[in-house]
Amino acid sequence: MALFARVRAHQVFGADTDVGKTIFATGLALASAAAGERVAYLKPVSTGPAHEADASHLATFAPQVASTTLVQFSDPVSPHLAATQATGALPDEAQDAQIIHGVRQWLMQQHGTAIVETAGGVHSPAPSGLSQADLLRPLRLPTVLVGSSKLGGIGTTRAALESLRMRGYDIDAVLLFPSERYGNDVYLGRLLEEEHGIPVFALGGPSDGGWGAPPIRAPTTAEDVAAMRTYYAGLVAGRDGGGLGSVVRHLQKRHTDRLAELRTLGTRTYEQCWWPFTQHARYTPQDVMAIDSAHGDTFATYNATSQSLDATLDGSASWWTQCFGHAHPRLTQAAAYAAGRYGHVLFPGAANQPALDLAERLLGTQPLAFPAPGSWASRVFFSDDGSTAMEVALKMAIQSSARRYAPQAGSKATQQRIRPGRAAGSLGGRPEREWEVLGLQGSYHGDTIGAMDACEPSTYSDHVAWYRGRGYWLAPPALATRNGQVDIVAPPSEDWDFGTKPLGSFASMEEAYDVEKRLGTPLADEYRAAINATLERLVIVDCRRFGALVLEPLVMGAGGMVFVDPLFQRILIDVVRAREDLFAMQDAPLRDAVSPAADGRSPSEWRGLPVVFDEVFTGLFRLGYASATEVLGTTPDIACYAKILSGGLVPLSVTLASSSIFDTFRQTPEKVHALLHGHSYTAHPVGCAVANETLSLLDEMVRRKDWAPFQAQWGAAWSFWDRAFVERLSRLDGVASAMALGTVLKIELADAAGGYASTAAEGLLAALRSEHIHLRPLGNVVYVMCSLNTPQAILSQTQAALEAQLRS
Amino acid sequence: MALFARVRAHQVFGADTDVGKTIFATGLALASAAAGERVAYLKPVSTGPAHEADASHLATFAPQVASTTLVQFSDPVSPHLAATQATGALPDEAQDAQIIHGVRQWLMQQHGTAIVETAGGVHSPAPSGLSQADLLRPLRLPTVLVGSSKLGGIGTTRAALESLRMRGYDIDAVLLFPSERYGNDVYLGRLLEEEHGIPVFALGGPSDGGWGAPPIRAPTTAEDVAAMRTYYAGLVAGRDGGGLGSVVRHLQKRHTDRLAELRTLGTRTYEQCWWPFTQHARYTPQDVMAIDSAHGDTFATYNATSQSLDATLDGSASWWTQCFGHAHPRLTQAAAYAAGRYGHVLFPGAANQPALDLAERLLGTQPLAFPAPGSWASRVFFSDDGSTAMEVALKMAIQSSARRYAPQAGSKATQQRIRPGRAAGSLGGRPEREWEVLGLQGSYHGDTIGAMDACEPSTYSDHVAWYRGRGYWLAPPALATRNGQVDIVAPPSEDWDFGTKPLGSFASMEEAYDVEKRLGTPLADEYRAAINATLERLVIVDCRRFGALVLEPLVMGAGGMVFVDPLFQRILIDVVRAREDLFAMQDAPLRDAVSPAADGRSPSEWRGLPVVFDEVFTGLFRLGYASATEVLGTTPDIACYAKILSGGLVPLSVTLASSSIFDTFRQTPEKVHALLHGHSYTAHPVGCAVANETLSLLDEMVRRKDWAPFQAQWGAAWSFWDRAFVERLSRLDGVASAMALGTVLKIELADAAGGYASTAAEGLLAALRSEHIHLRPLGNVVYVMCSLNTPQAILSQTQAALEAQLRS
């Protein structure tokens, strides 16, 4: 993004070729100069002989304007062809980056007015073949669109405008020659003002037969130049003083207004909005990150000191949602198509193609190049966010347990007992008991009450009156790179004593994540014995009643980016499934129904407890895998996806379920036995279409053999972050441990206090912020999360900045 | 939407004028005829002399094709100018509807192939001035786009394609003349195949100097015709057999595939998706409503019998979300712009313009033509749906009560007491008590556990293990039109005895909803006394502890469209606010902190209990008012909006809060005292931009003095449904009562069983379904909900269908 208070920059796009783009760009330069401004002009890419180039036209008619051309091709065709013909090969994406870099550098040197004239139409291909509108998007310059006054010009102008707007450009003005015959100016003037508040200026100068488009070419150059000079004078002044001079005044005002909006954006938000998960008392208006726009890995953030926009790295992937960067044009187009085809259509008892396609891709009915996350599942339930997806998962799981272990068909006493206890009390001489979840300490599943209740108590839930914490949470051993080596570290636990020394060490991440191989180790037996003993105590001695095993596989995110030992999670799942005898006896004292036999059942039927994977954060390549099932070597009965699912664009989540879970809810035709949960926008086509496009992009990424992780170590534990860098960090003073998997880099700072509430990392985050890297706090843990297409240069810069700060 | 198995229909759009649209349309007709199909051709709107018209071109070169022109203007300019010049005035929207009707009628008469050739480019204005792409959208015909092979044609073709796709059109093929010079065909071929799977066919015939674009005009007509005939033969056959004949085969396949997708859409969804709030055992695959697309008030639904698409009325406004109909192009464009500018950007500690604009419009900082729903509020908290908005509201309200009435600053005993009870038990010799909500029987606030807990127990919550029902719910008197008269009907209650006769009757809805006037009536005193007595019993005798008053104002939606007596709700709010003495003593036995004095406080500070309005369903003109505050004459302390908020397109919700609520959460700089709630996509720019555009459309609607409700009785109780019709219905046998307010029509069927579980209405709904009216079941209540721009014709047809069915 490029916006600086000291320079009023505009890019001039044409609705088509030959609509007068250079005339208007030259005229704008002249009018700006006439208004007393210093004016510079840039043609990033020019095709055709140099003496015919727009810059040379400008030199003739606006010699007071400094003009520059970045790239010049001699053949007057589209730049992508000119480039091919000049070099024999299509330039690669690096050349695009060079052009953008060149424009940005040029802009930074300007004062006053800067006019960037594009080549051809809105979508004319850049040298690399990329649409010019996409090429220039990182700068998001305020835009002047030159409309077409020809027959059909209404259509081409409007389509060009829509293409620009769907790439997030602000169009400050549409300029075109007046046309009495076709009235394009009148029609567009009314329409664009009404629908978008964009003013249309119909402008011309003295010309053949009147006032309008430029004169036709005169017999001699001298006459031609003279005629054009006269024309330009008229174009700038206008017949009634309303020529390009008035456009310049309008553009000056837009520039001023835009800066004023940016100046107040943070303060007004600070005063009127209520941020999620934020203590407002810790903020001042100056702390607010005012985001003008975003592209790829960066935000354009307002810098009050320089009164300009900075490119700030979105180092938390906008709360872990981004996977292909901000404002990806294919996701925008997918959203726009679905909006245009459906808007939203209700889902109960109905079907729409984007929802079905998404379901089939998640289940594997429509295969992709990577393992379907729900290959084991038979059903997809849609909701709006990770928290609602987990509420749905909990309802699915606990009701399945309740119907198997305390069936309605039981006695009156059983029926009463399994009724949700509306008020506390006792029943049958024993305390009424919750259907609890079995989970891990440090887990997080969302902020609605049901999702909160599936997490252990903390200082945060203390302040939520309705929080109950209905479960038991085990303390899981975790992986941590310490002094260059991957250790298994066990936290203190009331359930078992694994000692204080590391339970093991690995030479490589690959080894640590080779769960199948580790299943035969003594540690696996230790885990198995400890978990079995704990479960027996909980159910038999403590008389607790469990309805679900709930896990964030591999990494617990909000709980501090804890890299749980995958072997522990695998063994936990195996033990829970093996101990159906234990869970079936939970209601033994009052039981009157027999537990289903463990044999003779379909292998897809859930056993022991329904196993819920919360893959809201961990799934869909965040950790380098489509699903943690690939690492754990086992599948859940229910799993939740969100965040990356909808490409980091709009809210959407899914809860996948196996057939035996689904069947629980249609055992009878009674409506009350259905899963009575739903949100208005369930399976909204826009979200589903964006999710499908995201899966398509992931599919293409995996199919491309040049995708770095694929080449390096596909299927094994890998990371976008350099392994040697991670090991170096882990050896630094002040760093307790480090880890990296997939897109996630975690640095645990040495801090005795620890925990989420810690403010230990605040200094580091502030220092990085001044280097334009925005990270979110997470206690004494600092994490960085990239997208799946973050350029290597950004990764390297970020690593260097982190290492420098941590060493200092 | 127009799709019929027996007719392969295509509309031919041009990327620009003069790109060969008529040539390709004629060629397609010839190639289809050559493939043995019956072919018909339609030009909906034609400009220019009749003998130069495309239809006459077709008559010359494809005489075997039946060609029709619906509207012919003699002036060869854009239809909107031609129409103006022909009639002296712009045709109104009715003329658009006539054209669509004409095209649809024509299509229904066809077999084989039907080709509809549009005029000019994609956005060429229709006679009314509407973009042609928007005009034809209700039919959503499979589209062939003729691309431009000119210099700049890549840009115009791509922009045209994007404009078509963002209106939900499926583009089956792009046709254009080959061009070695510019290579548009090669570039577009690669790009469109890769990004959208759209094949590009570069086609031509023998022509001047080779094979390509049509020959230039020959000296005589005969020569000209002969040259063109030769050209067409080549265009159809192609040099290598790959001419338009191959395009026809591709289009035939797309037609077949499209029908196959539609045929299986319902079944595959039935087998792989899990519908919200639906008992799957009650469905067969044949029951599924397969929605191909939607526009305005209707779905295009697949009819397996006729193998075609029906226009089915979306009579539940897609679960109460629609307000300007499906696929409104302005909402699509707003979404696309925000997606292109931001994607999503995280919100905590940050700011983005769409979120701020939405906040300021809801709070009234940026005024609109109607009262700001949150004129009383100071803060906007964003989340994803009504249920999460209510979870946020409950956390806000209860925590505010807890901090006022049982402050942390108290003794150790107090602190222990106000800690959320993790397990049931007793404290200080008395049972630990919930912070409960005070609410109304029949209310509904969403399906997450916290939102469910704010509703009374029902047969549905019986089956949700973690449901607790933390509150007390009063039985509210309600309004019902019975035998042509609006009665106040009181349900039986344990709290008071209002008898079984109506508490009152009104000659008009206006009278019933004139709360201010009714405040002085004896009934107001009766309500006041009853509520006071009940509250005293609950707090003093039953020792219950309340943290919030939670209401769906005016109408309780999911609970059966109950039109609560607004006077009762007003008095309830007034009494709760007046009885701070009561709520302050809730913790008296263990109190050690003094309640804040009732005087000396800001009028904006909450009193008694925080009052929460759940306006998720009722707000933003669903009931004809921007907010129920306009009727009740009082404001809440917290309010929730969703559904209409985001224009019926994507999920978004807000919770508004007054400053005294907000301040509770920043009394200390401790993070744990903040409102610790957030979702990844909080304040996502796409949703906020769509919400802003929705508010703009509402604003324009209210400003238009011709808006029917505005003219009739702005500010008073009014309805889109005819009052006389409602009164007639209420007199029918089988109808217990009827009501209508704003967009909502409610019919309560006489059914002793009653309640949501009832299936009494199922027969009626099935009968209406066969008349292409889709309604959602709600026990013995049938309701219809329209948009704010539903045409009168649709309202009248729906009323007639309902009345006929109810009389039969």
From TrEMBL, chains A, B:
Main localization (coarse): mitochondrion
Transferase found in the keyword field:
yes
Alphabetized InterPro entries for the sequence: Aminotrans_3, Aminotrans_3_PPA_site, DTB_synth_BioD, P-loop_NTPase, PyrdxlP-dep_Trfase, PyrdxlP-dep_Trfase_major, PyrdxlP-dep_Trfase_small
Segments for region (Disordered):
405-430
- What Gene3D superfamilies is this protein classified in? Aspartate Aminotransferase, domain 1, P-loop containing nucleotide triphosphate hydrolases, Type I PLP-dependent aspartate aminotransferase-like (Major domain)
Keywords, alphabetical: Aminotransferase, Pyridoxal phosphate, Transferase
The answer to whether keyword Transcription applies is no
Tell me the domain of life. Eukaryota
The entry's localization annotation reads: Mitochondrion
List, alphabetically, the PROSITE patterns matched: AA_TRANSFER_CLASS_3 (PS00600)
Provide GO CC annotations from the record. mitochondrion
GO term, biological process aspect, one: biotin biosynthetic process
GO function terms (MF aspect): adenosylmethionine-8-amino-7-oxononanoate transaminase activity; ATP binding; dethiobiotin synthase activity; magnesium ion binding; pyridoxal phosphate binding
What HAMAP family would the database entry show? BioD (MF_00336)
- Protein name listed in UniProt: Adenosylmethionine--8-amino-7-oxononanoate transaminase
